[in-house]
Write a structure and sequence with these properties.
The complex is a heterodimer of chains A (186) and B (90). Chain A is an alpha+beta fold. Chain A has helices at residues 41-52, 112-117, 163-181, and strands at 16-18, 21-25, 31-36, 62-65, 68-72, 78-81, 93-97, 102-108, 134-139, 142-150, 153-159. Chain A has two domains: 16-28 and 100-181, Gyrase A, domain 2 (2-Layer Sandwich), CATH 3.30.1360; 31-97, 2-Layer Sandwich (Alpha-Beta Plaits). Helices cover 20% and strands 33% of the residues of chain A. In chain A, the strands form two sheets. In chain A, strands 1-2-8-11-10-9 form a six-stranded antiparallel sheet. A five-stranded antiparallel sheet of chain A has the order 4-5-6-3-7, with helices on one face. Bound molecules: zinc ion. Residues 5, 7-8, 57, 60-61, 63 of chain B line the site of zinc ion.
C-alpha cells in the first residue's frame, strides 16, 4: 500500500540561521478564512465569542484565545489559526479551508526587524507595529501577511506556490543584514 | 507617493494599483442611451489640480478606494473606501 506523507511548503529549505537571525517554518496548522456575509458582522462576532472566545479583529489587529488566533487578513476577512472553525460560524460567514494554500514562516532574532525592513514597506517601529499587530503588505514584490507574534519574532505568510521565492528573498535579506553587521576589515 | 488607506493606514504607493477616474462608479442605467454610455466609457476630463481616482490596495487589504489627488503636485487628499462612496447592497 502506498502511504502518502504530507510535505510542508518549505520542506528542505528551512531552518536557516544567519547572523543571529533565524528563519523557521511554522508547524502546519488548519487555516480557515472567515469572511462575514454582508450585514451579519454582529452575529458573527457573537458566534466567534461563543465558539472560540475570540473577538473579531479590527484592521491590523489579531485576537487570541488559548491556542486559537484570529488574524485580520484584509478587508472584511480574517484567518483562524490553531483551531478548527466551529460549524456555527457558517450561518454568518463564508468559511474557506486554506490550510494548504499558505506557506507560514517565522523570522526571529535581534536583527529580524532589519531583515524585514529590506523587504516590506511597513512602519515597523514599536509604536506603529506592536506585538499582536498584523498587516497585509508586500515582501519583495509578493503579497504577504506579516504578524508580530513576539517582540523579536514575526510570522510571515505567503502563497504556498511561492514558498521557495519567499524563503529565497528572506535569505538574501538575512545575508545582507549579517554582512552589514560585520566589523570593517582593517 | 504615499496613500492613506482607511483600513491599513499610510502606505507606499507601490502597494496600490491605479484604475482611473472615480467616474467609473457612476454607471449609467442600462437604457440610458448611446450618448450617455459613450460618455461613461470614453470621455474623461484631464484636470490640472484636484481629481477623484479609483485605486486598488492590491498588495494590502484588497479594498477599492476613492482617492483625491492633485495632478499638479501628486499630493493625496481624502481617501475613502469605494463601498462607502458608492454604497454596497447585500
Ligand atoms: Zn488597505
Amino acid at each position: 500500500m502506498i502511504e502518502l506523507k504530507p510535505l510542508s511548503p518549505a520542506t528542505g529549505l528551512l531552518p536557516l540561521d544567519i547572523g543571529g537571525v533565524t528563519l523557521r517554518e511554522a508547524e502546519m496548522a488548519a487555516l480557515t478564512l472567515i469572511a462575514p456575509y454582508m450585514g451579519r458582522e454582529a452575529q458573527l462576532t457573537e458566534a466567534l465569542e461563543a465558539a472560540h472566545g475570540l473577538g473579531w479583529p479590527q484592521a491590523g489587529e489579531t485576537s487570541a484565545s488559548g491556542a486559537a488566533r484570529l488574524i485580520w487578513f484584509g478587508r472584511k476577512q480574517a484567518v483562524l489559526v490553531g483551531a478548527a472553525a466551529s460549524a456555527k460560524l457558517a450561518a454568518h460567514a463564508a468559511l474557506t479551508d486554506q490550510s494548504d494554500a499558505w506557506s507560514c514562516v517565522v523570522l526571529e532574532g535581534a536583527g529580524a526587524r532589519d531583515v524585514l525592513a529590506r523587504l516590506a514597506p511597513l512602519d515597523m517601529r514599536d509604536v506603529a507595529f506592536p506585538v499582536g499587530a498584523t498587516a497585509r503588505t508586500e515582501v519583495f514584490h509578493m503579497a504577504c501577511s506579516i504578524t508580530r507574534i513576539e517582540a523579536q519574532s514575526w510570522q510571515i505568510m505567503g502563497f504556498r506556490s511561492m514558498a521557495k521565492t519567499l524563503v529565497h528573498d528572506l535569505q538574501v535579506a538575512m545575508e545582507g543584514v549579517a554582512a552589514r553587521a560585520k566589523p570593517a576589515l582593517t | 507617493m504615499r496613500i492613506a488607506c482607511p483600513l491599513c493606514g499610510e502606505r507606499d504607493s507601490r502597494e496600490f494599483s491605479y484604475k482611473g477616474h472615480a467616474l467609473a462608479l457612476e454607471r449609467p442605467a442600462e437604457d440610458a442611451g448611446v450618448a450617455a454610455w459613450d460618455d461613461y466609457l470614453h470621455n474623461r476630463d484631464n484636470p490640472a489640480g484636484l481629481t477623484q481616482e479609483l485605486w486598488f490596495h492590491d498588495m494590502g487589504c484588497a479594498s477599492w478606494l476613492v482617492a483625491e489627488r492633485n495632478t499638479v503636485t501628486h499630493e493625496f487628499g481624502a481617501v475613502r473606501l469605494a463601498e462607502d462612496v458608492k454604497g454596497a447592497k447585500p
